[in-house]
Each structure stands twice: as structure tokens, then as C-alpha cells.
Amino acid sequence: MLSLIKTSIGTKFVVRWSDLMCNLALQAVRTVAQDPELDPSIPGVKSVDIKRYARVEKVPGGEIEQSRVLNGIMLNKDITHPKMRRRITKPRIVLLDCSLEYKKGESQTNIEVTKDTDWSRIQEIEEEQVKAMVDKIVEFKPDLVITEKGISDYAQHFLYKANISAIRRVRKSDNNRIARAVGATIVNRVEDLRESDVGTACGIFYIEKIGDEYFTFLDECDSPKACTILLRGPSKDILNEIDRNLADAMSVARNVIFNPILAPGGGATEMAISVGLQQKARSVTGVEGWPFRAVADAMEVIPRTLAQNAGGNAIRVLTELRVWFLTPQKGCPLKLH
């Protein structure tokens, strides 16, 4: 498998790190692959969605050898409150697609305040509503709350008091990958939250500063179905080139998993077809044998061209190939230096 992937990057920029890149591509594709034949618990058909579930994060700085595939997800996010926990082992994770903020009415409303107590009461109502939402989450004793929308200051305060870390405004695609990695279910309303929706498959949650930015890591997940490929390099241009080469390698690995059939190159397939058609032509009498011979001669164009480009004697090479395919043996029929 690694040899197949290596052929796709043999002439590219990352050929110096071919072993590393091949291992990264293979590990990422195997992580996101879903095969119902190997795992009966997976419904549907075989799928390898590297576009949605194998995300590449390019972080300038460091050595290319520091690139790796995480057994989980990495986000370019930091916690919302500076006093929240930044490292949690075996966290219970809740994923939300709703905001933890005071909900405004759908229609335009005007409030006339005549006393200072009325203004205080308005703020209390807002605080009570946010606290009720947070209390619904606290019932399930999570360690980490991740939402695609905003988190108000009140909600951050109540979550911090409950010793819960929070991350807000996560992209929808990232939230989907987190759900597949940690075994959680994205909930649209806190009232619909259930114990089965809490993700418990993450081994460790921590936040690390790389360069000038903070990154959230959800690592060491149990059998994740999504992953992040962390690429390191000296500059953005080099990282972009590595990303393009790695995409080619992952595409090759995905194709092999989908259809594990190998067609040998170097003109071998065309020569085998040509010899087979020539044998068939001898068994057909009359004019009907000519189409077989014509296609057989056309198939020999590719090995003949390869032999000429390599500086060999095309007639001698084709003759040796015909003899070899008529009496097939193990190994390579001939090598051109």
C-alpha cells in the first residue's frame, strides 16, 4: 500500500519526506474509512470522505518532520473565559447548535422604563433565562461545551462556576468532525439534550499555543471516524505545496480502499492484451481475424514508445516482451538502464 502511494509523490516536492507523507496519508484515510463489511455496526455503503472528515491544519513554524495525524480533532480556537480549565483528561463533551444568550423577541418591542428598579428587573429576567439554559446543561455534568453560536457573559460566568470549559463560534464542518471523533450528537436546543448525546470517547482535551495563536486539541480518541492532519513547515508557500502533494497521496489511498485492484504500468498491461489478442486472431479464420490483429498492433504502441524514450532497441524489446508473455515467468521481463 505504501509503495502505491509513493508512486503518486515520487516526482513532487515532498519526495524527500516520502515515507512520512505516505504514512500520514494512509493513516488519515484509514481513520475516516467506513466499511460495513468489516464493521457490521456501520450502516450504509463503504465511504471514505477525506474532504469533510480529514482536515489539514497548516501551522507555519517548526520542522516538516513534526507533521502528524491526530487521533482526534484540532481547532484554531481558545476557551471563552480565561479562568476555565485548559486541560481535561477523559472529558464529557456536549455539542450545541444554539446560542447560550438571551433570546430577543421576533417582533420589535419597546420598553418604557420609569424606575431604576424596572431596569434591574429587566436584567434579572435576562440572567434568569440564561441561567435556566445553563442549568439544563449542568444536569449532565459535562466538562466541555462546544457551540456553533455565541455564549453571553452571563453564560460564561455560570459555566465557569460549574467548572465547565466552553468554546464558541465553531464552524459547522468542525462541529460535525468533532461529533464523529468523540461520539457525541449535535443538539439544536438545550431542552432536547439527553445522556446519549454526550461524547465520552475523547482521551484528553488541552489548549496549546503554537506561534502567536491558540489551538484546541481533542486527542487520543477511541476509534475516531474523523481526524486532523497537522502540517508544520518553515513558510506558508511550502505548507501549501505539501498540502497539494498530500491531497494527491490521500486520493490514491482512497481509490485503493474503494477498488483494491492493481494494473501494472510500464506498458505491461497493454503488452499482455496485445499478446492475448494475437493468439485469439490465430484461432479466427478469414477476414474476422484482422480486427483482433489491428487492435493488438495498436496496443503495442505504448511499450514501443516507452522503449524508444528509454533509448532501447524497440524491435528487440518488443520481441523479448512477446516471448516473455507467451511463456510468463516471475519477475520483470527486462530492465532498461
Structural account:
The protein contains 11 helices and 11 strands. By secondary structure, the chain is of the alpha/beta class. It has 3 domains: 1-56 and 231-262, 2-Layer Sandwich (GROEL, domain 2), CATH 3.30.260.10; 72-102 and 117-223, GroEL; 268-326, no CATH class. The strands form 3 sheets. It has a 4-stranded antiparallel β-sheet. A 4-stranded parallel β-sheet has the order 7-6-5-8, with helices on both faces. A 3-stranded mixed β-sheet has the order 1-11-2. Helix 5 links the parallel strand 6 (144-147) and strand 7. Helix 1 (2-8) packs across helix 7 (236-258), helix 4 (116-138) packs across helix 5 (153-161) and helix 8 packs antiparallel against helix 9 (290-299). The two termini are 26 Å apart.
Provide the fold topology:
Blueprint (H helix, E strand, L loop, with lengths): L1 H7 L9 H15 L17 H4 E7 L7 E3 L2 E3 L11 E3 L3 E4 L19 H23 L5 E4 L5 H9 L3 E3 L4 H11 L3 E2 L16 E7 L2 E7 L7 E7 L2 H23 L9 H16 L6 H10 L1 H9 L4 H13 L11
Parallel strand pairs: 1-11, 5-6, 5-8, 6-7
Antiparallel strand pairs: 2-11, 3-10, 4-9, 9-10
Helix pairs in contact: 1-7, 2-7, 4-5, 8-9, 10-11
